[in-house]
């Protein structure tokens, strides 16, 4: 047996004995494998499992998912972030349902043609569902191979080398188990910090372990600078148990999801100056609470301030319920307040019952995080009729 074959043999044997029970591992259905892989690109197995189960319960087949509305899919996806993945999920389900009679392509190449399915996901589905000999390379596999063979650079040239080694290492007769074993090893044993080398099934083959150089592999990537944005959310509450909400329609984060009316600025705003502008829209109000926190997305840092206000009059609010009109409702004053943008438009701001917020509207994590704050949740509950 060649060395690569021995490594793979030992890896697969370890996997068969120690693999975790996961609901999608009981199936080879490409729909279920696809769904689980897309969810697991966003989160860990423990957090992702309830999402997977919820999706399968609501949409047991690709036909069911294809018939769902975007709102339903976004609501189920809520909390996972990166919402374009959820939109791609729906788009691909509709394509498979309409153009492929509900049957997923049965090869790596065919799967790559589908929207939202990249090399990694195509390799995972092709190997697990169809036993095709293609190697998966995700973050876990990268790390294992980088340490196993002491591969330094992870950019371009390094990635090509790792991919080549992943293919050479692949157990051609058991690609499904081999790929899952590599990912499982990276996730349970060969962790980014403090890998459990003493119980690693392939430690005798590992060059980084042999030379005591694990901390050097994989090399640290230089982090891209994250864009900082200032989000000022106005949370206008009414005695009727309602609050104003807005739907985001621009090509930006959280497209087609709902937030409280939002004003983006170039820097932190001076509260009183903002309140003058808010008064022009909502009339008199009482400030109940101001909450600030930082919310980190993959490429952006959001510095959020939530202004919870209780409206005193309905006179100004009536104009919000006028027929569609795209003219800006909010008179922006860029020079004094440094606004970047606001979503205060007559056509996309509407009142909703507070108690129905979570069940009826897709809300990004920043909004649900705010609503889960004890003090905020008490304010909201006191107004729910
Ligand atoms: S010996 Fe340690 S560093 Fe090497 S593959 Fe195993 S867990 Fe990873």
Keywords for this entry:
385 residues, Endonuclease III, domain 1, Nucleoside Triphosphate Pyrophosphohydrolase, 5-stranded mixed β-sheet, 3-stranded antiparallel β-sheet, 17 helices, 15% strand, elongated, binds iron/sulfur cluster
Would you write up a description of this structure?
- The protein is built from 17 helices and eight strands.
- Strands 5-6-1-4-7 form a five-stranded mixed sheet. It has a three-stranded antiparallel sheet with strand order 3-2-8, with no helix packed on it.
- It has two domains: 3-216, Endonuclease III, domain 1; 227-383, Alpha-Beta Complex (Nucleoside Triphosphate Pyrophosphohydrolase).
- The model is unreliable at 318-337 (pLDDT under 50).
- The chain is α+β, with helices and mostly antiparallel strands and 385 residues long.
- Helices cover 43% and strands 15% of the residues.
- Residues 144, 147-148, 189-190, 195, 197, 200, 202-203, 206, 208-209, 214 line the site of iron/sulfur cluster.
In a nutshell, what does this entry contain?
The chain is an alpha+beta fold and 385 residues long.
What is the straight-line distance between the termini? Answer: 72 Å
- Specify the overall morphology: elongated
CATH architecture of the largest domain: Orthogonal Bundle
In the sheet with the most strands, the strands line up as 5-6-1-4-7
Instruction: List unreliable stretches of 5+ residues.
Output: 318-337
Helix content: 40-55%
The CATH topology label of the largest domain is Endonuclease III, domain 1
Compute the number of strand runs.
8
Return the structural class.
alpha+beta
What is the CATH class name of the largest domain? Mainly Alpha
Number of domains: 2
Order of helices and strands: HHHHHHHHHHHHEEEEHEEHEEHHH
User: Total helix count?
Assistant: 17
| Radius of gyration over all CA atoms, rounded | 25 Å
Small molecules held by this entry? iron/sulfur cluster
